[in-house]
Specification:
Strand content: 5-15%
Oligomer: single chain
CATH superfamily: Metal-dependent hydrolases
Distance between the termini: 10 Å
Strand order of the largest sheet: 1-2-3-4-5-6-7-8
Number of strands: 8
Structural class: alpha/beta
Radius of gyration: 18 Å
Bound molecules: hypoxanthine, zinc ion
Shape: globular
Largest sheet: 8 strands, parallel
Number of helices: 14
Mean pLDDT: 98
Length: about 325
């Protein structure tokens, strides 16, 4: 099996509908019935509705041990598909909305990483994220928590949520605070926003990677610039197809961006919401674009080189590829 590495996956977004229902039942947490369709899968219509569905499902996660379970369960599934490294986005705002402290949410995820490493050998790290549509003040608050409670598994800072809200410069105080402490950052840009959203991110935020960045394809000069500055793109074709950005993986610009010299990586984003997995992403991308095993290994190598973890771990992972 091809060894895989994943840089862009939202932790709450990895929880399967089954796991969410089990946690809700255990916690006596009432789940909004509109969370699921009649077949038991997550129900949402467009990206904005997806964000709402995500919040409803995430509300079932109620404790440090729940965070451990969600993390462990995802790393187990990823490992079964040949994944050796996952950098997952944590969201302290989601934890706080159900009364879980920053520390408990973080330690639960770390527990899950430790348990999965012990049992499956897979390695994990955390990128703490803020939620763009909650605004710059919330973002700054999350950034401050990252600094106040350092943890060896927290290797970066990022931002997800609704790209249409606010301007990247509004989040410069949060991103700069974290960057000045030495942690690298990434931002969702060029998913639902166009090339201007990517340019604004590069102009105002100290990012070392781009979440998606896929819509750079609409601007040739921007693609050339991204290739020149070698900023890795966290591409998630299955997610983009699922949310309606592209009609099919064959219409996804993954191959065009790769051929243009951009550093491409491959991730699943929110796998059960998008009916995908890291294994499926690798299989589909290889099949659709005719990539060889060596091509796919090079994508894994890109991801490991672009990872925010320590160099000694990267060297160890690269040897496994
Ligand atoms: N995109 C943006 N924000 C998100 C996502 C996503 O796929 N998942 C959770 N928050
Ligand atoms: Zn994402």
């Amino acid at each position: 099996m091809i060894r895989k590495a994943e840089l862009h996956v939202h932790l709450e977004g990895t929880a399967t509908p089954l796991l969410v229902r089990q946690m809700a039942e255990k916690n006596g947490a009432e789940l909004d019935p509109t969370t699921f369709a009649s077949d038991g899968e997550y129900r949402w219509s467009d990206f904005w509705d997806f964000l709402k569905c995500y919040d409803k499902a995430a509300s079932a996660i109620r404790s440090r041990s729940d965070y451990q379970l969600v993390t462990y369960d995802y790393l187990r599934r990823a490992s079964e598909e040949g994944c050796i490294y996952v950098e997952t986005f944590s969201s302290p705002d989601h934890a706080a909305s159900v009364g879980i402290s920053y520390e408990d949410h973080l330690l639960g995820i770390a527990d899950g990483i430790d348990q999965a490493r012990d049992e499956f050998g897979i390695e994990g790290r955390i990128i703490v994220t803020c939620v763009r549509h909650l605004g710059p003040e919330s973002a700054l608050n999350v950034a401050q928590q990252v600094l106040d409670t350092p943890h060896p598994y927290v290797v970066g800072f990022g931002m997800g949520g609704d790209e249409a809200q606010f301007h990247p410069k509004d989040f410069a105080p949060a991103f700069n605070l974290v960057a000045e402490s030495g942690l690298p950052t990434t931002n969702h840009a060029g998913e639902f926003g166009g090339p201007d959203s990517i340019r604004a991110t590069l102009d105002y935020l100290p990012v070392s990677r781009l979440g998606h960045g896929v819509r750079s394809i609409e601007d040739n000069d921007l693609v050339a610039h991204l290739a020149k500055i070698k900023i890795p793109l966290e591409l998630c074709p299955g997610s983009n197809v699922s949310t309606g950005l592209y009609a099919s993986v064959s219409e996804h610009p993954f191959n065009q961006l790769k051929n243009a010299g951009c550093i491409v990586t491959l991730s699943s984003d929110d796998p059960p919401f998008f009916h995908t997995s890291i294994g499926k992403e690798y299989d589909q991308t290889a099949a659709v674009f005719g990539y060889t095993d060596e091509d796919m290994k090079n994508i894994t190598r890109n991801s490991i080189q672009a990872a925010f973890c320590e160099d000694s771990l990267k060297e160890k992972l690269l040897k496994l590829v």
